[in-house]
């Protein structure tokens, strides 16, 4: 009967010993090269605690943002996710700033945590080059989860940052890759927490150790530590300062006014222009291929539902009862803005179309291409008192880039579903 490892998983000890006797060239030199006396269980546990508290918030807001796009209508990307499908529910319209908060937190916190993530990886990097890679089956499973964890968070961070920079260099669909990559990371994160949480708690309960620490089972402490060039407190201050700097370079994305120009890491709309229409656009009229003739005197809004079809020109819409609401518009890239919109309530248009109690509404744009040229709105998004077919913004007509002659504005709705250059709305009853 073969010898078994200390963890009782049935792997022969001889395998680990054989691997230990035959390290790859340079393995010992690499191990001895990590000489910082700051590395050790205490520093790794402090950084791990920060991520343990904050990363779930990034995960939860990301999943909520996916739900906000209405996966029940097949308009959240990716559309086909098999058993990774989230429970569907009607995304609320109140508070009106809900999506602005969830998307802003997801993007902003993801950026702010980059220095913490890099510091955490630095603190455990000797472990990644350890030989043999594992000394038991349990450690093999741990290493696999660690590989998925590190790979997952680096992939999600890198692609997310590139996406908000509008640097589409992927060669694959960002939304699909980001969604499935998130689930890989979530699974590895849960497994890693289950494996390491007891040790993290034990380490942090102890008094802060001297520098360098005593050798530890995870071999994070350097074999031959060099002289310290920075204290642990100094290192944590550098990491915290880096996160604070990124926060200052990010927060302007959600603030109107001069601070908008400080959002250097979210360049979209830093200088949107002046005047009542001087705020961000995700897609201009030119980029969308909207022709002036399509939005001129010949434009008609077509309403269908309840067995009737109604066509309205802009003058007729302006003659209807107008409602004004101050509402945010927030984009998947993380920026948001608050503006004052005026137009006709969608609920009034539903009544005009013969559907006084709409279950949903399908909105189509004059735009012929693009992922978001149409959107389906839930019942509460149609009937909310501030859900509008907006004709004016900040007291003036919409500009072409902001959707003239009419666009959708609904509280807490993702910006890309606030359809611009509306051509027709189809209301559906229950």
TrEMBL record:
Q: What domain of life?
A: Bacteria
Signal peptide position in this chain?
none
Coiled-coil ranges from the UniProt annotation: none
| Segments forming domain Oxidoreductase molybdopterin-binding | 295-429
Map out region (Disordered) in residue numbers: 1-20, 208-227
**Pfam families for this protein:** Oxidored_molyb
Transmembrane annotation, as ranges: 42-64, 105-125, 146-168, 180-198, 234-252
**Molecular function in Gene Ontology:** oxidoreductase activity
Under the heading InterPro entries, the entry gives: Mopterin_OxRdtase_euk, OxRdtase_Mopterin-bd_dom, OxRdtase_Mopterin-bd_sf
Sorted alphabetically, the keyword list is: Membrane, Transmembrane, Transmembrane helix
Keyword Transmembrane (UniProt): yes
Name the UniProt record assigns to this protein: Oxidoreductase molybdopterin binding domain-containing protein
Q: What is the organism of origin for this protein?
A: Asanoa ishikariensis
List the lineage, top down: Bacteria, Bacillati, Actinomycetota, Actinomycetes, Micromonosporales
